[in-house]
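[Automated response] Your request has been received and processed.

Submitted sequence:
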Amino acid sequence: MAIDIKIRPAGKNDFSELANFLSFEYFVHRHLDWRSSLDWLGHQPFLIAEKESEIVATLASPPDIPSVAWIRLFACNAFVDKSLIWDELFNQSLKNYGDEVNLIAALVMDKWFYKLLTSNKFDVYQEIIVMEWNQKIPSISGHQKDYLIRRMEYEDLPAVLTLDHLSFPPLWQLSTADLKNAYLNSGYASIIEIDGRILAYQISTESLSSAHLARLAVHPDIRGKLIGSYIMHDMLIHFTKKNIYRITVNTQNDNFASQNLYTKFGFLNTRENYPIMTFQP
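Generated structure:
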């Protein structure tokens, strides 16, 4: 890298300058998250590249779950070599992880970022597919009388987090902070209890006339016993009572169990998809 480029850790006092930089640049990747990109200031690695004391690039990829780091933010000035400055920022980030992180991931929304990662030894791991509801609520055959569906309460979050980590691999697990943010920003969050144990949950967001099923988990021990169907049915009834009929959900292209559940409830593949790319240090 040219000697006139300086790389340093970003701090909370960089908020205004970074916000200004991001508002004017074209090459900006932001991770879809429960927290905004600049909420990660104060967590490392969050790096800034400067030329003559002005920001020309930034990379934030602090781990939230101990073994996994997502690329939360990458932005680069159009007059700077993206590949060259990525290499410097990314290699410095790798030094920050030590042996703690064994997987680095990115949800890729733009072709320029896909090309950049591909040329830097990231591989496609999965694809996120987007599904949308066809506005029909199917009936559920069979009935289990010993379950209770109710709204999620703040006090439920520790048990919900335990369920979340049982239900998903580390790449997709929520941290305590993200679960809290998901709950506080939800339009509707509910759980299923059986004998006082939380065995399923869903968190959906709401925006004007639409909703998005952001998270659904069923305890591995009771999958295939209609619990996922009960909580899906309840969620759809909740939103249709509010005259919300546009409901979307994202899932992985290789998660056939979730796709079958969503298809059963009238969700159709929109053919909108985004790659998940990963790098193993």
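Summary generated for your ticket: The chain has a mean pLDDT of 94. The chain has two domains: 5-121, 130-274.
If you did not submit this request, please reply to this message.
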